[in-house]
Known about the structure:
This is CarD-like protein. Helix content is 48%, strand content 18%.
Amino acid sequence: MILFAVHDILVQRYGRFTRCALISEIDVFGGDxxxxxxxxxxxxxxxxxxxxxxxxxxxxxxxxRRYYVLEATRKRGGTVYVPMDHEDFLRxxxxxxxxxxxVDRFPLIETDDFKDSNSHTVEDHFKQMLxxxxxxxxxxxxxxxxxxxxxxxxxxxxxxxxxxxLYDQAVGLVLSEFSAALDMPEDEVMRIMHExxxxxxxxxx
Length: 205
């Protein structure tokens, strides 16, 4: 799968980094952040976006507010409007060092064991994890879905469409940030991973 393939490739290319890089970056996210035009930010469910406007006066539902205007960088693209008084929905992209540290730690990330007889409850649980706008959580969702899909396939069952959908969404968010942090187009990231593992793209978003 794609996230397992990226681990060895990126570590070989860029080397290993300590956890301090990731921890210090997360600490920075806790402070006040003001974004400017052309900044790259991560917005939950959209991945990496570029700030195209700030302090944009708009009226939605009769309420006048000022917004960040973002352009999503992934294939589906689109314009996103985020109220400036809700900039906690945004965060800066991780640095290259922090991403490589996450990649290095991927084998140690534990899966989430949440289960319920109601599939909607399960889906809501993992969607909420993705809405946390945390790359580590997205990696955990991807790893969990990968494990559950593999379990179903081992029993000759057709994988749950919910699992594959969540897997694709989580991988898309992670890949978006890896691409931006490493300054490498997503297609190039996928090509390198495919060279290492021809099956890595089997469930790519």
